[in-house]
Structure formats: C-alpha cells, structure tokens
Design brief:
The structure is a single chain. It is built from 3 helices and no strands. The chain has one domain (13-123). The radius of gyration is 36 Å and the shape is rod-shaped. The protein has helices at 2-8, 13-82, 86-123. Helices cover 91% and strands 0% of the residues.
C-alpha cells in the first residue's frame, strides 16, 4: 500500500503555482538588489573620479603657485645683490613684501575656490 500511496501522490496545482510565484518573486527581489548595488558602485566610482580630478587640480595649482613664488624669490635676491645702497635694499624689501603678501592672498583665494569647486563636484548627487 505504501507503493500505491507514492504513485498516487500529486502536488496540488495551487501549491505549484504558489511555489512558482515565490521563486519568481525571489528572483525579482534579487535582481532589484543587484541592480541597486551596481548603481551604488557606479555612483561611488563617479564620485571617486571627481574627487581625484579635484585633488589633481588643487595640486597642480599649488605647484604652479610654488614655482611662481620661488621664481619671485630668486628675482628678489638678484635685485638685492645689484642694489647700490641700503636705501635701495630697504625699498626693494618693502616692495617685495607688499607684492608677496598680495600674491599669497590671491593664491589662497584661488586655491580655496578650486578646492570648493572640487568638493561641490564630489558631493553633487548622482543624476
């Protein structure tokens, strides 16, 4: 009789449909999770690229400013060596200090603007 029971056992159609629907729902949920994960990775890659580009811009600008400032210092030293008297040395020193303070203020402002732009690009929500 146990053999006959195994032969006659059938899974009801409603249970098959329910199981099929459950598998389909699980597949769709998994696909949604994977899709969201891909979007998140893409967004993070974009932000990382923007941060890298921004850091590169700030670094390049800082290097250009450093080169300019060193060149200015050498020019100042050259002028000091050629000065004819103490009065000229003091005038050159005052002019150099005035120019350098303005240059440094301008450079700091420009670096700040560049860094702000980079930060805004990095933190901008993904479209």
């Amino acid at each position: 009789m146990a053999k006959d029971a195994k032969k006659n056992f059938e899974i009801p159609e409603e249970m098959r449909k329910f199981a099929d629907q459950s598998v389909e729902q699980a597949r769709k949920a998994f696909e949604a999770v994977i899709s969201t994960a891909h979007q998140t990775v893409t967004t993070l890659e974009g932000r990382a690229a923007a941060a890298h580009a921004g850091a590169r811009d700030v670094g390049e600008k800082a290097m250009a400013f450093a080169e300019h400032n060193v060149a200015s210092s050498f020019e100042f030293a050259r002028q000091l060596v050629r000065a004819k008297n103490m009065e000229e040395i003091l005038r050159l020193q005052a002019d150099y200090m005035k120019t350098q303070l303005q240059t440094l203020a301008d450079q700091a402002g420009e670096l700040g603007q560049t860094a702000t732009k980079a930060a805004m690009k990095t933190s901008r929500p993904a479209a």
